[in-house]
Write a structure and sequence with these properties.
Elements (H helix, E strand, L loop, with lengths): L4 H25 L2 H57 L4 H75 L2 H5 L4 H13 L5 E5 L2 E2 L8 H9 L6 E2 L6 E4 L9
Parallel strand pairs: 1-4
Antiparallel strand pairs: 1-2, 3-4
Length: about 250
């Protein structure tokens, strides 16, 4: 393939642009904030799930407490009515004796129910403390997610700004290079991890960094200036420079 030597030199500038764009894209995909944000989001979701479970459990305990308080209140009301009847002295001796026995039974029942009530109240207090703690944890996790989101967006915006700046002259540069040479460059670049053209400096390929053997160097030295040469090792386009170190033709 033939191409103006000046066009071949421009490939090196084009490669510099494409290499920097590739580096920016690599940095964009691997921002530290991305992994940190993912971790923080996962942690927040876990805390939120724990909070939902704690709130559900607390709601159940509060209903249980309502029932326990209602049971105690019913027994107290019944005992108050019986005590009032007993204090009035109305009724037969048998009835009054029965009331006395019922009051004793109600007192034991009330004591048992109050023990249950206290136990449920303690569980409710513990549940409220856990909900309060988890709410604070969730709020802190949310704040961290929001902060990391801002940091990520700022970092991405800066990379996007740089990318636009780097890419701005690319189209104009490409328009000054032989389309066939650009097409070859693009094919080689796609097949070679993003590096399609490399300078030949001090007998070394700038792509694979290997030193060319004397036979290959001699062939390049004898090749016309407009001939597009390739590295025998990595197949990239080799652009001859003033520092190529080629033997005299």
């Amino acid at each position: 393939m033939k191409a103006d030597p000046e066009h071949q030199q421009r490939l090196l500038h084009l490669q510099q642009i494409d290499t920097r764009l590739q580096q920016i894209d690599h940095a964009r995909a691997r921002l530290p904030q991305l992994a940190q944000l993912q971790e923080a989001t996962t942690a927040r979701a876990a805390v939120a799930d724990d909070l939902v479970r704690a709130e559900t459990s607390l709601s159940d305990v509060r209903r249980e407490l309502d029932r326990a308080e209602s049971d105690v209140a019913q027994v107290r009301d019944r005992a108050a009515r019986d005590q009032q009847r007993l204090d009035s002295g109305q009724g037969s001796a048998k009835d009054l004796t029965a009331l006395q026995h019922e009051l004793e039974s109600l007192a034991r029942r009330q004591s048992d129910l109050e023990d249950v009530e206290i136990e449920v109240m303690e569980r409710a207090e513990a549940g409220e403390e856990r909900v309060s703690t988890l709410t604070a944890d969730r709020d802190r996790a949310t704040a961290q997610v929001e902060e990391l989101t801002r940091e990520r967006d700022a970092a991405l915006a800066e990379l996007d700004r740089e990318r636009a700046e780097v890419a701005a002259p690319r189209a104009d540069l490409v328009s000054t290079i032989d389309p066939a040479l650009v097409a070859l460059y693009d094919r080689v670049r796609d097949a070679s991890g993003g590096l399609g053209a490399a300078p030949l400096v001090q007998r070394r390929c700038g792509g694979c960094q290997l030193e060319l053997n004397p036979v290959d160097l001699g062939a390049i030295a004898k090749a016309p200036a407009d001939e597009v040469v390739r590295c025998e090792e990595c197949n990239r386009i080799l652009v001859r420079t003033d520092e190529s170190g080629l033997p005299a033709a």
